[in-house]
Amino acid sequence: MTRSPDPTAVSTEETAASAAPEDGHARALIIVSVLCFGGLVASLMQTLIIPVQPELPRLLGTTIPNASWIITATLLGGAVAMPIAGRLGDMYGKQRVILASSLLLVLGSLICALGSTLIPMIIGRAVQGLAMGFIPVGISLMREVTPPRLTSMAISAMSATLGVGGAIGLPLSAWIAQTFDWHALFWASAGLGLLVTALVVAFVPNIADKSGGRLDVIGAIGLTIGLCGALIAISKGGDWGWTSATTIGFLGGGLVVLAVWGLFELRTDDPLVDLRSSAKPAVLLTNLAAIAIGFGMMAQAIVVPMLLELPEFAGGFGQSILQAGLWMAPGGIMMMLFAPISGMMINALGPRITLAIGATVLGLGYLFAYLFMNSPWQLALASVIGSAGVGIGYAAMPTLIMGAVPMNEAGAAVGLNGLMRAVGTTLSSAIMAVLLTVSTQRVGTDDLPTHSAFGWCFLVGSVAAFVGVAITLAIPRRRSVAEQPVS
What we know:
single chain, 19 helices, 3 domains, two-stranded antiparallel sheet, 487 residues, Growth Hormone, Chain: A, disordered C terminus
């Protein structure tokens, strides 16, 4: 496939030749900083609503099950956006898709800021979820705008924003919600989205990296329907009942649609997702590891704040949402601090060993939490250990993926890897919810999880992380095809 010339774009070679090495490095650092800030803002949206989540039924005049769709909508938007945005970035240019993603963030925020009923909130949160396409496309762009010696560190920093945004977003949004009206959360996110949009326009170049082709519309629709069916079943199974006809219908229907979608993708000339490339051992096993590590990351994000906020008379620590968020914040900072370290590890040890180390550290963090969960500082330390593992692992995964696929497929491949992480986090949410309801204690009129239930959650999270280690070590060593020419 021949790349189409774009008169408005700046070629990679021209950019490199037109500046001195020092200027090129300085410009690359600015671009990386803008992309990382945008990724941070996009991932922050995932935890934006958590501080007011218990109040949503009252604020929106609806029921608790209906209000939960606000969380589900964001999850679905992000899951669908990542592989599709990656493919669009490969076809039409990554800067354009990154800009579109930042505009979606602004639009979704404004819809929520101006709405006070359930439907606008669901629509707005779904649109905010679509902005998650910013992250995989930004990661795939890193390789084209950075000198080789900075690429691993840049990818590490961008990957870390997936966890950092969530960790920082919790205390920040809790403070905003407690200080101002809840709509201020979305006015603030709209302002951040506008800032990201302006920075992208000003500093992220429109490189001539588009490979052309046509959008596989049928594939995009099939993937959306299949993913929504399966992920809705997993997300809502606890409310509907895991053996209910509704849950089984959504899950079965989603899996059938995904199976048909897979057959269609194998037979189309220009697929949304190249399943043959995705079936390569290096790509397939990395994506399976992404599910396990995504599971481990989300388990920590769910269980630790819940234990911190559980009343003391029920075996918890009685922390407010803001206090719990502050206890979790060091974990997010640790992810960012580990970005340059993980980049150096990738350069020295390779992405495969780095990913295995990251998953191992994550598993050890869960074991620490299981053995020492008797005070908030112990849980914070466990979160720091686990977050270091997540930071290392999230940095290595896109490097592994991009080293196994041609340059013109990088965006779609990284987007699919992001989807696999989303599947892991969704499974984690469902399984943690089940574990926390298996062993409960009656406190007043409420059934609250016991201390042992939290311990089981930490053990399961540890097992998931060590499964990720085993999968990672099975990834074959192979020569990178990242620099193969596009024909």
